[in-house]
Amino acid sequence: MPEVGRVWLGLDFGERRIGVATGQPLTGTAQPLRTLRHTGDPMPDLAVIVREWRPAGVVVGLPLAADGTESPMSRAARAFAERLRAAHPDLRVVMHDERFSSREADARFRAARRDGRARRRDAAELDSHAAAVILESWLAETAGASA
């Protein structure tokens, strides 16, 4: 169960972009924070975010195939999570199935555009919305497991 009262980070890992979100176990909600764009090592940028937010842990999305099998991208996400663990040994790093998170994030973004809460140019931050979906899914699953 996540530590109540401490923020968690959610990450939607990609080879060029990493969506980042923050979330609260108490409310079970997450908010998009930002999308990191990288061409090399994203760890320095993530270290700044970890220092700033001091999270209880990080949830990294695991991009499995629709049938639940591993893919090259899921293996890359696992390797990324291992690098994150090595860089922050005191930080809890967990992986969470992210199937359909991009679809949900896209639906939320379209709804926000219709309501006037988002503009077309905000689409560059779609990865951070996917990170929020991943984190909320994990928070809901862990809350249900502890009930």
Give structural attributes:
about 150 residues; alpha/beta; Nucleotidyltransferase, domain 5; five-stranded mixed β-sheet; 4 helices; 5 strands; about 25% strand
What's the structural blueprint in terms of helices and strands?
Blueprint: E1 8-13, E2 17-24, E3 29-37, H1 43-53, E4 57-62, H2 72-87, E5 92-97, H3 101-114, H4 126-146
Parallel strand pairs: 1-4, 4-5
Antiparallel strand pairs: 1-2, 2-3
Helix pairs in contact: 3-4
- How big is the Rg? 15 Å
Which class in CATH terms? Answer: Alpha Beta
- Describe the strand arrangement of the main beta sheet, using strand numbers: 3-2-1-4-5
Strand content: 15-25%
Q: Count the DSSP helices.
A: 4
The largest sheet, given as strand count, sense and whether it forms a barrel, is: 5 strands, mixed
CATH homology group: YqgF/RNase H-like domain
| Architecture per CATH nomenclature, i.e. the level-2 architecture | 2-Layer Sandwich
Low-confidence stretches: none
User: What would the average pLDDT be, to the nearest integer?
Assistant: 86
The total tally of domains equals 1
Description:
It contains four helices and five strands; from the N terminus they run βββαβαβαα. By secondary structure, the chain is an alpha/beta fold. The protein has a single domain (8-146), classed as 2-Layer Sandwich (Nucleotidyltransferase, domain 5), CATH 3.30.420.140. Strand 4 (57-62), helix 2 (72-87) and strand 5 form a beta-alpha-beta unit. Helix 3 packs across helix 4 (126-146). The radius of gyration is 15 Å and the shape is globular. The mean pLDDT is 86.
